[in-house]
Amino acid sequence: MHSVEIKDLDLNFGSVKVLQGLNLDIHDGEFLVLLGASGCGKSTLLNCIAGLLEVSDGQIFIKDDNVTWKEPSERGIGMVFQSYALYPQMTVEGNLSFGLKNAGTPRDEIAKRVARAAEILQIEPLLKRKPGALSGGQRQRVAIGRALVRDVDVFLFDEPLSNLDAKLRADLRVEIKRLHQQLQNTIIYVTHDQVEAMTLADRIAIMKGGAIQQLASPEEIYNRPGNKYVADFIGSPSMNFLEGVLDGDAFRVGDQTFSTVGYNFKSTASGQASMGVRPEHVVIGDAARAMPNTVDTTVDIVEPMGSDTLVWAPVAGNRFRIRIDGQTAISTGDQITIGFDAARASFFDAGTELRL
Amino acid sequence: MAIADDAQSPSAVQRERTQRPNRLFKNMTAKIASIPMVATALVIFVGCTVWTIVHSFTNSRLLPRLEFVGFEQYERLWETRRWLVSIENLAIYGVCSLILSFVIGFTLAALLDRKIRGEAVFRTIFLYPFALSFIVTGLVWQWILNPQFGIQSVVQRWGWESFAFDPLNNADIVIYGILIAGIWQGSGFIMVLMLAGLRGIDEDIWKASRVDGIPVWKTYVVVIIPMMRPVFITALVIITSGIIKVYDLVVAQTSGGPGIASEVPAKYVIEKMFQSQNLAQGFAASTMMLLSVLIVLIPWAYLEFGGKKRG
Amino acid sequence: MADATVSMTGPRGPKPKRRFSPTNIMLYGTLFVVAVYYALPLYVMIVTSLKGMPEIRLGNVFAPPVDITFEPWVKAWAEACTGINCDGLSRGFWNSVQILVPSVILSIAIASVNGYALANWKFKGSEVFFTILIFGAFIPYQVMIYPIVIILRETGGFLGVQLMGSIWGLVIVHTIFGMPILTLLFRNYFTSVPEELFKAARVDGAGFWGIYFRIMLPMSLPIFVVAIILQVTGIWNDFLFGVIYTKPETYPMTVQLNNIVNSVQGVKEYNVNMAATLLTGLVPLAIYFISGKLFVRGIAAGAVKG
Lengths: 356, 311, 306
Known about the structure:
The complex is a heterotrimer. Chain A is α+β, with helices and mostly antiparallel strands. Chain A has helices spanning 42-50, 92-102, 107-121, 136-148, 166-183, 194-200, 218-223, 228-233, 286-289, and strands at residues 2-13, 16-27, 31-35, 57-62, 65-66, 77-80, 154-158, 186-191, 203-208, 211-216, 240-247, 250-253, 256-259, 271-277, 283-284, 293-298, 301-304, 308-312, 321-325, 335-340, 346-349. Chain A has 2 domains: 2-228, P-loop containing nucleotide triphosphate hydrolases (Rossmann fold, 3-Layer(aba) Sandwich); 232-349, CATH 2.40.50.140. By secondary structure, chain B is mainly α. The two termini of chain B are 16 Å apart.
């Protein structure tokens, strides 16, 4: 069953086309993350779903109901904003109940829903306080609570954690995940943070230039990125790319030749291509010699990061990043052998940049 | 930032200068450059104010004299019908212009904030009177309210023979005639202030209220207006300090007439000082004006700066 | 709009809007009526100033002129009488210009240096003086007017020049009373300039004036424009100081205008009066229409002046 369905959606601001011919099906109870750099149209899309922006063309269905012309409050959605957008002059309780009161919900029903939301989010002690007296994390809980009391099937989150510091962000991230497991609602979640996307999502839609680049599970997106943009965007440190020529089972970069045996090509491919190798899929030392592809090189720069160490060493004249265990002793100028398996690499067409 | 010791003698500065161009010497320049500011603050704002207050307790007439007579000038002031009329006018004008400026200013700002077409045109029209002086304002409205040729006669010629609207010649309502002109001149600016305040409100608040299904008018009343408190306070201070200074408008529009029906305190002061050679009366009246400003200003300053103790 | 061939039917694309919804009629109706109230006086001024007196006596202030005549403008500019002088508003105009130019330059020069010193060269007590200055902006002018008369008279006598009643006396008064708001304006602006820039200039050996002229001045052009707009409008529109600190030969335009229109002698020539009023309003109106957004910034900054 579809929870939210978007058909041929266009959105223009004047002559600027922000979203173009966008289609998206979101299943019931799914946690979908819209991920992309700023200006990619992800928040715009969310605002269209919410009804806060009027679409230029296309349709939006929520629970198989055509809501394209409906007001946000009639769409059966709850929304959480980056800036929390709490009503500053009302108490937490007032914030939670304001919309319900306005919709004419019976008093005891309001009390019941507020109590339930407060319990789920553990904000009972804060109910009588005003937003000004709360910390950022508490405010965001209240904002989530305001969406919760609406008792709807679809929650929209617009970069809800961006205004929080790193530690709080990690804590609240887990809570949102727990909330989703508990409530099993559909959640559409916009973020530019790939860690949030990877940890939370059932599926991720990576957006660029108003179009979805790839819609897939986090595992799929990480291991089999659909195009070079996605491959580069996901993963930190980002993927190494080597430009070269595909010829049968060989990939030639300058005078280096790598074996592509083990890589699952969609169809037989040859010609100009680029090979992407994740820094964490490269090994050094004895383990490297066991790999199908090995390169001897010299360490250029070492960036220790505690848990692991990022090593820069040239491969076929290109800068190449290698992520190794933080306990490995290594220093600039060391001669090393690195190795990787083409089965875990990605190949992209040089022209279309699509996965081969 | 360079904070140097104040207790250096000029000769020390001279010596410093020849030795090395250090912070002290440079800061000396800053101090010298600040002389006009210091002089204005001390001589004009403190000195002249104190001087006037002191002389309000004397019996100075044509020339200031230090012959103290206690509160006699104030007693006489509050027995003068003209002063009482002035105060009453100021009160009516003040209350009405405060309410109207707020209502008109906020309503117009809210209307313009609804993403309307031609916003710039409307804003330009609402604000241009603020560029004009009170003299120009007063004279235009004197002409429009002219009973023989202005609005009254136009409406009468349209067929409503008994229509009467002649505020400038009717002692009972003359202050409202001035009010019409004053609001015309100043409310556009209050609108601009309010519009800036509305534009400063987080867009997400509006989105949240739409998701919650709150009607627009209710969002304004329950959510937005309470959030605009700082803007309202600024507007309040601006309007009030403007009201107390009302002078040119009355001079141009009615010259205080008919009779003394549209006199205001500021005009009383100027006339006592420069025309009727009754200086001490003028000083006493101006001190009363100062007092009324302080009544507005001190609570405001307390609210605004009282919380944080850092200048 | 719903097409049977499309699997999904129902609403599609933007919600059709009614152009004349009750909300829109209310919204634009209100704005339009209010706009008429605001625009009317300017319109009345213009049409009245272009009519002859016989046409005005026929009576409708709102009727457009039948016979357009520029005579009232000529008369207002060159012939209108104040007391025994009959050389029109032109004299007041030139007086105002002579007052305006030095007042604007002097007040902005002093206030910008004040603001700069307060932002970057704080010294012991500088904040105290600044606070006094800001509070001074709220003191009714009436309280300080008379002592300033004495100061001008005495200093003038001491220096052997006529300050009281002269244009220069008025220039000083405008400089003094423009100081609080302008100083605040410049102080706030210079405070917002990154401190690193100032420190870098110090390291490079620049002093108080060097930094002011070579770093701060070139990068604060917009704030100077705002200050100029604020001062030109304020000084041009001033009446109170003009009437007190000048004498009939040096009256600024506003004072002369008031004397022409409100003179009790002779027959009232409403068309000449309105032409004179428009002439006086022309300078600030021109600034307003040309500078647009900057004007709004200027008056917003000058707001506390009241």
